[in-house]
Amino acid sequence: MTLRTVKGPxxxxxxxxxxxxxxxxxLHLLGAGRRVTVVERGGHPGGRAGRLDLQTERGTFHxxxxxxxxxxxxxxxEAFAAVGEKLVxxxxxxxxxxxxxxxxADGSTxxxxxxxxAMEQEVRAVCGPxxxxxxxxxxxxxxxxxxxxxxxxxGSNFDSPLDLLGxxxxxxxxxxxxxxxxxxxxxxxxxxxxxxxxSFQALYAGVPPQTALGAYGVIAYMDTVAGVFFxxxxxxxxxxxxxxAAVAAGATIHYGRxxxxxxxxxGRITAxxxxxxxxxxxxxxxxxxxxxxxxxxxxxxHELVGRAPRRAVPLRYSPSAVVLHAGLRHAHPExxxxxxxxxxxxxxxxxxxxxxxxxxxxxxxxxxxxxxxDPGLAPEGSDLLFVLAPCPNLxxxxxxxxxxxxxxxxxxxxxxxxxxxPGLGDVAGDIEVSRLVTPAxxxxxxxxxxxxxxxxxxxxxxxxxxxxxxxxxxxxxVLAGCGTTPGVGxxxxxxxxxxAAQRITGLRxxxxx
Length: 513
Prior knowledge:
Elements: E1 12-16, H1 20-31, E2 35-39, E3 51-56, E4 59-64, H2 74-82, H3 87-90, E5 93-95, E6 100-103, E7 109-112, H4 116-127, H5 129-154, H6 167-174, H7 181-188, H8 192-197, H9 217-224, E8 229-231, H10 236-248, E9 252-254, E10 257-265, E11 268-276, E12 285-288, E13 291-294, H11 298-305, E14 320-328, E15 338-341, H12 347-355, E16 365-368, E17 383-391, H13 401-419, H14 427-430, E18 431-437, H15 439-444, E19 477-479, H16 490-505
Parallel strand pairs: 1-2, 1-13, 2-9, 6-15, 13-19
Antiparallel strand pairs: 3-4, 5-8, 6-7, 10-11, 11-12, 14-17, 14-18, 15-16, 16-17
Helix pairs in contact: 1-2, 1-10, 1-16, 4-5, 5-6, 5-9
């Protein structure tokens, strides 16, 4: 297969956005000898992995406003290695054990361990020997699935669906990658609780487990086999580490600058126009370039380019999320770093938020306590809590979030109290300071359909059918980020930066472990 690359000179690359995709692309480009300038509208690096400091009389709660689950840090290591650095020199990572603690409506708890023997023992103790044997078989399947996908399906650029053809496609099909994830997981696991643990990740891809492609079992591999990590200093430290490495390797980063337009000539971008983000009516400046890497959400990219690609069916976006960031007065040491609180409902939950455009009647929630791994993120003796509730995006459920949001916050806190998870107690009464984020807030940040999870991973929006990272009609524009290939989540976004750099340099990088 011959890879299509950017035509013409590629000496100076301007990257729009200092998120994980943009900074990863920058590091790979710097390593290949390109001069790189990054333009970031915010005042700090990280993009969607944002930061918020909630001040109180007792001190500051340092909140991560974006993703809280870190998997596959080896992909970051590849980016650091491109400029001769090592991840361990820039980030202090803690491997979480358990990666998740899961609570169920029947009162049972299952800790999800990365270590195979430990997890087999946990499954045997809670679910019985048949389930333990099924877990061992499923773990082997997830591992084979990952090996079949990582370099040729997830970590590859596609110029045509025909690029899929070959031995790896046959292997993926044989493994059930083009079947349905839910039934495949059920074929290994007789216990419904385990089925949820190893298939809920499909929601990250914007589709219910029952209809998600089996190929997306690879997300469960990343979560439950490869391991879950947390950087001391919070997720915000990842963006800072990437930016610091890029600057050390020669990149220039302009913060607080919003790109407002592209100058073109002969089918190429010749320069970008940008202004101070804080001055919407301020004067613009010109930044010449040989290539532009565009990482904002697709509607912003389409506005800059001047058109959206023609598609037979409009893009379909993933569900959104309501997030409560809460600074608690007291520590809750019994609560794990990540907890998934499952309601009794399951399939109906996905139907409500994806098809019906309604809030979950029996919610399943992700609860993160980052202070379990880094107490310094909160004042001494306090805790920081992040509660995420999947919800409809603004296309499927155009709710009045200014009115609905506060009431839903109280409802979620009531649900947590009623479920009586060990260590949580009266969370509502322990909140000292908080911030609620709704789909309306995501939309205000320029995210399509009010969702931070971008374009969903239906079959028609997966692999070679996902919005491409080359822009038709512009010979030197490349996309990166969750809206393009390979997709949503930290590992795919990091890979998108690598794939964007590959479009410019022609260099292939494979072998993530």
